[in-house]
Amino acid sequence: MNPVVHFEMPYEDSSRMADFYKNAFGWQMNIMGPEMGNYVVAWTAETDPVTRMVKEPGRINGGFFKKSPDNAAPSVVIAVKDIQEAMKKVTEAGGKVAFLQDGKPIDIPGIGLYAGFLDTEGNRVSLLQPKEK
After folding, report:
1. Minimal CA–CA distance to 86: which of 117, 121, 122, 112?
2. What confidence tier does 49 reach under pLDDT thresholds 50, 70, 90?
3. What is the pLDDT of residues 50-87, one digit of tens each?
4. CB under 8 Å, gap of 24 or more: what pairs does 34-42 form?
5. 6-40, pLDDT tens digit by residue?
6. Which of the chain's termini has less CB crowding within 10 Å, N or C?
7. What is the separation of C-alpha 82 from the centre of its chain, rounded to a whole number of angstroms?
8. Taking 70 as the threshold, does the pLDDT of residue 101 lie above it?
């Protein structure tokens, strides 16, 4: 079984969004720079500083991305052992792989390989093949 390991939501103003979640829920927010697509990492649970994974099973962290016309809905990230095989299964099941970089999964430094897809209902979902430790 492949677990949900991360959530993602869009933002219009990263500072405003980060302040909201910090003040409302106490989340730690890390606004990344342009080299990381201005992504904002949200730590919602105690996280190991080395592995960047949550310490308590069953909890997840998340992130926020700049809202755009073709990417404006929240999504979840599903961990998989083999991203190429998972992309094949998504396609065979009727989904559409998208959100790639030059037709390939995106290599997120220190995290792993990432690709997005649309399910049969048009929902945006993502795949993550975590980097081997």
Report:
1. 117
2. confident
3. 877 788 888 999 999 999 998 888 999 999 999 999 99
4. 37/65, 37/66, 38/14, 38/65, 38/66, 39/63, 39/64, 39/65, 40/11, 40/14, 40/64, 40/65
5. 999 999 999 999 999 999 999 999 999 998 889 99
6. N
7. 16
8. yes
Residues in the chain: 133
Q: What is the pTM for the complete model shown? A: 0.83
Name 50's Cβ contacts closer than 8 Å, sequence gap at least 6: none
45-70 exposure pattern, b = at least 16 Cβ within 10 A, e = fewer: eebeeeeeebeeeeebbbbbbeeeee
At 57, phi and psi to the nearest 5? -55, 145
Q: What is the DSSP letter of 42?
A: E
Report d(CA 128, CA 3) in Å as an integer: 10
Place of tokens 């106490």: 26
